[in-house]
Write a structure and sequence with these properties.
7-stranded parallel sheet, 11 helices, 5-stranded antiparallel sheet, binds guanosine-5'-diphosphate, alpha/beta, single chain, 39% helix, binds magnesium ion
Length: 360
């Protein structure tokens, strides 16, 4: 069995690439499993993978490194229940120091019994462009520190969303990336393109996407501060509306939340929604950098009731995030003549990272 670890910043395209790779491998007759991971309890990514019929287990309530035994147990469970040929494990997007706390323990400790074959780190080409061109980043310094450290320790750096840059910018970015991390395996990718995913999967199955064995020095005070600056919110919302209005109500609520966050200029790590109805399930992901047109991918939903699962990671206080989302939704719902009720609300700042193992 091949285990591929996938890391990289919030919203960089990890889940999109894994879904694409999974579809491809399933079509080739391979059995595939996924391990998801995030800070809260009700994970949009898990719902999304399960909606795509991929056997999925999850490590919730903290990152792989601080819950290593859970990760090992999940890998064993997946192995025993789904007999996968290939497993993808996607780590929390604000997690760093993965080589010392996950890769090396998986390689060197017997408890997991499943050494990884590769570690890909995804970076949004637009964010990396800002970073390497010396332009301001849309996050605080300690959050940017996490972004940098993730890339530094990558076995394979996947510069993703290449479709969102012009050809000259992309070429310059690739040159700067090669200069900044000499010797690192780097690939440019548009994870929405089947051909690009096919080439990535191919690469993972060869020795050209090596497992990194060198951990990077990291200042845990800065890492912990960056992690804590990004408040977490997860909740379920039940929305009741008139027949035929479901799609427009969902778009109104999501647009209102995005507008409220933008109005206060709060940096978005990710804000994602899983819309669940009896007939259709769909994921909506809001971009950290302005990007028009997300509404076009929202499908039509039938019926008069919708369940919305929300996962948000935003640079602000967790209390403020919770209240902002609740009040914005209530107002947007009443403007559309619908009602919404929240449940299972969890909102907090992730605790200081204390890895189970750290092999320097
Ligand atoms: N334009 C473009 N969008 C992408 C690409 N890869 C992912 N996305 C979008 O970026 C958003 C975040 O993707 P997701 O896979 O959830 O990121 P994750 O948080 O790293 O797992 C989603 O709206 C994706 O559709 C890409 O290569 N190009
Ligand atoms: Mg994801």
């Amino acid at each position: 069995m091949d285990l591929h670890l996938i890391g990289g910043f919030l919203g960089s395209g990890k889940t999109t690439a894994i879904i694409g790779a999974t579809k491809r491998l399933l079509a080739q007759g391979k059995r595939v499993g996924v391990v998801t991971n995030d800070q809260g309890r009700y994970l949009v990514d898990t719902a999304f993978f399960r909606a795509s019929n991929v056997p999925t287990v999850e490590v919730t309530g903290g990152c792989f490194c601080c819950n290593f035994d859970d990760l090992a147990a999940c890998l064993r469970q997946l192995n025993e229940s789904a007999w996968p040929d290939v497993v993808f494990a996607e780590s929390v997007g604000s997690c760093a120091d993965i080589v010392a706390t996950v890769v090396k323990p998986l390689l060197e400790l017997q408890s997991a019994g499943m050494p990884p074959s590769s570690y890909s780190v995804f970076a949004d080409a637009r964010l990396l462009r800002r970073r390497l061109f010396g332009q301001p980043m849309p996050f605080g310094d300690d959050v940017v520190y996490i972004f940098d450290k993730q890339i530094e320790e990558a076995g394979l750096l996947v510069i993703n969303k290449t479709d969102l840059l012009s050809a000259p910018d992309l070429q310059r970015l690739a040159e700067l990336a090669r200069q900044s991390w000499p010797g690192k395996a780097i690939r440019l990718q548009n994870s929405r393109r089947e051909e690009d995913i096919a080439a990535w999967v191919e690469l993972l199955q060869t020795d050209t996407a090596p497992v990194p064995r060198v951990s990077v020095p990291i200042d845990y005070a800065r890492y912990g501060s960056g992690e804590a600056q990004l408040a977490w919110l997860d909740e379920c919302v039940t929305i009741n509306m008139q027949e035929g209005q479901a799609r427009s109500v969902v778009i109104s609520l999501v647009s209102a939340i995005l507008a409220a966050i933008r109005r206060e200029d709060l940096p978005i790590g990710h804000v994602k929604f899983m819309v669940q109805t009896a007939g259709v399930e769909a994921k909506i992901s809001l971009p950290s950098i302005d990007e028009p047109g997300w509404e076009t991918s929202v499908p039509v939903f039938a019926g008069t009731q919708i369940r919305l699962l929300i996962n948000a990671r935003v640079e602000t206080s967790s209390d403020h995030l919770r209240v902002l989302v609740a009040e914005t939704m209530r107002q947007a719902a009443s403007e559309t003549g619908s009602t919404c009720a929240e449940s299972e609300v969890a909102s907090f700042h992730p605790g200081f990272p204390r890895p189970t193992h750290r092999i320097a």
